[in-house]
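In this section we turn from sequence analysis to structure. A common task in structural bioinformatics is to predict how a protein folds when a small molecule is present, because the ligand can shape the pocket around it. The inputs are simple: the amino acid sequence and a SMILES string for the ligand, here pyridoxal-5'-phosphate. Study the lines below before reading on.
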Amino acid sequence: MLFHSTRGKDTDKDFASILMQGLADDGGLFMPDYWPQVDLDEIKSKTSFVDIAKCIVPLFTSSSFSHEETTSMVESTWHDFEHQDLIGIKEFNSVSILELFHGPTAAFKDFGLQLAAAFFNKVLESENKTAIVLGATSGDTGSAAIDACKNYGRIKSFILLPNGNMSEVQRRQMSTIKASNVFALRIDGTFDDCQDLVKLAFKKRDFLNNDQYLLAVNSINWTRIIGQICYYFYAFNQLHQKSNLNFSIPTGNFGNVFACYSAHKMGLPINNISVAVNENDILHRFFSDNNYSKQFVHETISPSMDISVASNFERLVYDLFLDRDSARCSKMFDNFPTNPIELDSITWQKKDRLFSSSKVNDLDTKKIIQETYKLFNYILDPHTAVAAVEAFNKSDENNHYVVLSTAHPAKFPQVYEELDIEINSLPFALRDLFKKEEYLHSFDADYNQIVNFINRNN
Ligand SMILES: *Cc1c(COP(=O)(O)O)cnc(C)c1O
């Protein structure tokens, strides 16, 4: 299995190359050359998440690692989870909540990032090299990346976070980690400023030692998607006796939705994927109006979904809408966001086979949190709540909905204070967070200041 770029100029790459490279040379995103098929009877016969992952991950890594190498890595990849099978499932009428927040940073991003970090380390060991991880975060990516990499001595992590709309818990998860290879950099600016600095660094690369890798941890890294594909098959394993499965997914950068779509292309029977967004509705505008255009970011109570563009969306356009026509894809995305994306109407209607979308504002998000608490004594996190609205509206005996629960509610305490809901049990990840010392390095949104800091610590 080799990989190629959605924009067609970076092709025939093996797994290890796209893992370490992140974004393709032509600015596109890497895709597998074909969709490997999964034997559903085999999936049904498995008894744990890790056993299912051992069927999925090797399908993508075979160009660089033997089957045995990959499966033994999969066995040791996901660590520090509080739930014995990593994932919990709660059922309310025809809705199942797939709890993906039992990992060390209490958000689903542990699944993709721990897998990526384990493979980063494997490649670095075999080539006897070191790496710098550089990323910008507005929420959960940073802490998951830091946690996933902190035990690998060959990797130094520098994570840029904005001064803005991030919960104090999220910030403390990054700033209180005491490890000599981990640095949280607070930037006096917005998330976009942080991202621009990271982009510039990836272009200039003027702070790397000889042979040192610069690694991207944002959700365009295909290995993160692989880790996420696994839990859709796990949901099938646990819930296939219900009716047709539908998934409702709280969405920002579209990584989780694209993993769901990938699972479907690999043979997972799915009736409908509901793309659920908050006021940052670029994807909802596309799925309901055929209008994909960048707007300003609104701050909401589901901050990990506060984005202006959804990077992984290019993969769906390429695979589903354009039938893998990289010339057309590159024309569209080379000119985006200057030119908004609008498909011809026949092409656009392909979405109807699988996708729907919904947009939920903060008021309705709070409402469903309160209702679910009253009815079921269950606390939804604000991101999960955005997706729960559609699931509770549309599900019935013939249509089971699975809501992806992407974070633990305790990450967003101010929301529950306002609603007068008490969160009784804190996940291990968040205990004592407010007692620990913070190690934050503050900078202006200035490239030279950042690079000087990296140089001093590299
Ligand atoms: C990252 C994140 C999302 C958005 O996921 P995407 O894959 O970027 O669409 C949703 N909820 C939480 C809690 C997150 O951390």
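The chain has 19 helices and 13 strands. As an exercise, try to locate the residues that line the pyridoxal-5'-phosphate site and compare them with your own expectations.
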